Prior knowledge:
Layout: H1 2-30, H2 39-47, H3 53-87, H4 99-113, H5 123-140, H6 148-172, H7 180-184, H8 194-212, H9 214-220, H10 224-229, H11 234-256, H12 262-273, H13 278-303, H14 312-335, H15 354-373, E1 375-376, E2 379-380, H16 382-390, H17 395-429, H18 442-456, H19 464-485, H20 490-514, H21 519-527, H22 535-556, H23 558-563, H24 567-572, H25 577-599, H26 605-617, H27 621-645, H28 654-674
Antiparallel strand pairs: 1-2
Amino acid sequence: MNTSFKNTMRAVLTFGGGAALLCILTFLHINQGSVSIPLHTVIEAIFSPQDILEHHTVRYLRLPRAAMGVIAGGALAVAGVVLQTVTKNPLASASTLGIHSGTYFSVVVATVFLPGALFGGGMIVAFIGGIITFLIVYVLSGGNSATPVRMVLAGMIVTFLFSSLTSVLQLFYENETAGLFLWGSGTLVQNGWDGVQFSLPIIIVGLLGIALVSMRLDTLSLGDDVATSLGQKVVTVKFISILAAVLLTSVTVSVVGPIGFVGLIAPHIVKLIGYRRHIPLFIASFIWGGNVLLAADVVARVIDPSFSELPVGAITALIGAPWLIYLVFRMKQTNYSGDSTSIIPGKSTIGISMKILLPVLIGLITLGILVSLASGNYGIEPIVSFQALFAGENEFMKNLILDLRLPRALVALASGMVLAVSGLIFQGVLRNPLADPSVIGITSGAGVGALLTMYVFGVSAIWIPVGAMIGSLVFFIFVMLFAIRAQFQPTILALLGIGISAFGSAIIQILVVRAELGVAGALTWLSGSTYAKGWVELFRYLIWPIVLLFPLLLVRIRLLDTLALGDETAKGLGLGVTSSRFQLALIATILAACSVAATGTIGFVGLIAPHFARLLVGPSNTRLLPVTMLIGGLLLVIADLLSRTLLAPNEIPSGILVAIIGAPYFLWLMKKRAS
């Protein structure tokens, strides 16, 4: 009797309480708007409509938006349940597996190159992109043998790659993609019932398809071997389920854009209540998915009372990122104990002598800078550049080289060095081969601080690095607190970094929209760029950390070798583990903040350079420091050169080029480890 009462109360709370909350949120949502409409007018517009402006506003703007929120949130939540069951990954959702980024990229590609393929609101294109993205992530993370960590990390890298490619298209085809920036961040804005009428039948079809295989999903959750022994066609069930989940995702993306984390939050709310069988799990997740998305949209318009439309996707990320962190800690004992890391940190396979390697790297950097000085909109002009510098034949070209090209190349060199060394330190301190200022959220924190300084407090530009450092330090404190609680386990820290970075990126997205920064300017800054950087950025933000902090690191770098032996061994050797970690991580944080202040949020340099350096010289940090520093500088010098020359006179942000290079490299590493 007691158990029956508990089950009844649980059902009342889950379904009745969820439905009641959905009604309340819908009512609150309809009553929000730039124009205040009395309550009795809203009720009249719903039940006794008349041909007046207030009633049309309610019926054709506010009601469709609320309905779309319920439908989209419910569809994303159900898709999340399916993905979690099929992949056996409790952290799976359309956002964490990169499906959203794939659907968005495919829609942008079609908008630019194949606008005729966008019939049906672009749903077919989004569906194809979502399926391809899921297959990429699934295969590269190891297929049936993939661990939750490896799959989510593969999704993160694929998201970086597709986001970078999408940004390139949006920069160079700004007119064609002008209406996609807000949509690409997720928005429930509707101008009538067209979106609801288009999406609802397709979502119903997807839900019916999932309902038909729900009993088989119950069996599948017991394991592939058990399901097979019971006569179930596992491959067929997975295929149908994934098609239905991606269909639900793609149709919502085609109407409201990629809205992340709903498929992660809602299913786990229901699972925490105690539901495991899929029919009640689907129904409850649909209800609570609608609650999550409607609540996020209500909060978005509370944050911005001017109703200039904050992207609801940023709000769901603000909610979902802490939720992801909570889930990681909640499941760390049972899910990740056997997965030491998802990507090999790099082993010395070449073994080049430092006496040969350092001069070669310095020579390559020098060559890269010389080519950069001689390169412009008309290609490489070494003779013209040489004559301008040393023969005084072309004063304009001489000034162009000395005042624009040279300082820009040096900014790229210094910023690359700083980011690479920061990544090396974080990887050693956190014992995590995926640690990088951009991956673990330090870069996002610096970006938040810089944007708050520029657009909220409105102070002089000279305070931007101060804001970047404060922001990065705040995020650094959270990273270290989480790392201590996670006992510095690499896999857990990698997932926590995704959550922290997503939280910071959501704040940055909100600030960009609130500041009304132009699409091109926002994308350039968010991606990281050396465009128009000169002597001011070099001396104000980059020279002093190199001069002051790099010599200090040369003295302290051996601490990383000791930390690599493990905490107990390090303590036995007399090392203050906690204080050493904190000091080194603080230096790495300051380095990352200085780079953000100078060039924006450039990612992957701190990942690629240390990994590649380990391949060349092995694990000794004394040898790694100078090699990593030079490789990072060389990488960004080359990226800066290519950014100016590949599509001249147009320019690609350097950070996007680095991501396009770095993402395939790490996907290859993951595939190598998975096989």
